Amino acid sequence: LELSTVFPGAGDDFEALTEIEIIEMEMELTTDSKARVASTVKARLNVPAQVDPSIILNVTFSGMVFDLIDPDTNSHLGGIELDVTDVPVTYEDGYITASFSKTDMVIKDFDGTSDLIAQLMVNPDKTVRMEGKASPLVETGMGWLQLKDVPFGGETVMYGFNNLVDPNTNLPEMKITKIDIESGEDGILNLLIDCDVTNPSNVKPEMGKVSMDLWTYNEPHVGGFETKIGTVTIEEFTLEANTDRNAVTTFTNVKAQYVTPDGDHAKRAGDLFLSNFVSGVDQKARIKGNPDGSGTDIDLLKPALKILSSSSDVPGLVGNVLTHS
């Protein structure tokens, strides 16, 4: 006796994972133009239409090979490949949550990746697509199954740093809490700055040494122009992140310089700023990346720093005395 039948397939358009959500991400940028990424991702685990979803009892691990894609350009920015044992998974109510530690991302489009980082730097969010294959270890009513190369893909949102401005209140997320004069010479004051930076993203960026320009601040409705009055250098610019997008990173004794600007108008603006500061008057300052990209040695980060522009309240000198010599 012989019986034959057609075993139903999933179909060419079947995707094992949809509704992809980046819970948290860590991105380390290096001076040799590489990126290392860690992340926790949540997604719906799908089964073919003809299969009862209750057959899946648990998922514990999953290998993954996927590309990060910019849907606006359809460019494959970078790729990540993970073994099954590298990605522990929890399963609940049809959704998996997968986490992986820092892994090298193969940069496939350098300019596109730089542009993505720049968009994240100045915008509240950016839609990206994750597309690849998963190999989940699945517990079913028939036992454990190691699935291989199951396709998945979907768009998700990466939350950006929005020029270090709260996207809900439009208030600056960088708060200078203290400025101390360390030393000085003709036309230059060497400063030490303490500041708190709230990260409006769920992405933790590790950006190495970063230098930014300090400018006098003009309210948009006032007009006129801003004047560059110095630089601020953070030796290790890493911002903590969390799922609530409100993690605070405190920097202490950040080195900065006040440099007397050139030109009569600019010098008057600088003198006014300095006079207010030494008189203990709080004021605003603008913090910008250098437009030539010299604020970082990381090529992937240069386009982002070129367009960074934020602001902060600057406290006046406490007690109107020098605390260092």
Q: What share of residues are in beta strands? A: over 45%
Task: Count helical runs.
Answer: 3
N→C terminal distance: 99 Å
Give a short account of the largest sheet.
10 strands, mixed
Structural class: mainly beta
The low-pLDDT segments are: 4-8
Q: Provide mean pLDDT, rounded.
A: 90
Order of helices and strands: EEEEEEHEEEEEEEEEHEHE
Radius of gyration: 25 Å
Shape: elongated
- Quaternary organization: single chain
Total E-strand runs: 17
Specify the helix fraction band. 10-25%
Write the layout of secondary structure elements.
Elements: E1 17-29, E2 35-45, E3 56-70, E4 75-82, E5 89-92, E6 95-107, H1 110-122, E7 125-140, E8 143-146, E9 150-159, E10 174-185, E11 188-199, E12 203-206, E13 210-216, E14 228-234, E15 247-259, H2 264-278, E16 283-289, H3 302-307, E17 309-314
Parallel strand pairs: 1-12
Antiparallel strand pairs: 1-2, 2-6, 3-4, 3-7, 4-6, 5-6, 7-8, 7-9, 10-11, 11-15, 13-14, 13-16, 14-15, 16-17
Please describe the structure with a list of short key phrases separated by commas or semicolons.
325 residues, 7-stranded antiparallel beta sheet, 50% strand
Describe the structure.
With 325 residues, the chain is mainly beta. The chain has helices at 110-122, 264-278, 302-307; strands at 17-29, 35-45, 56-70, 75-82, 89-92, 95-107, 125-140, 143-146, 150-159, 174-185, 188-199, 203-206, 210-216, 228-234, 247-259, 283-289, 309-314. The termini are far apart.
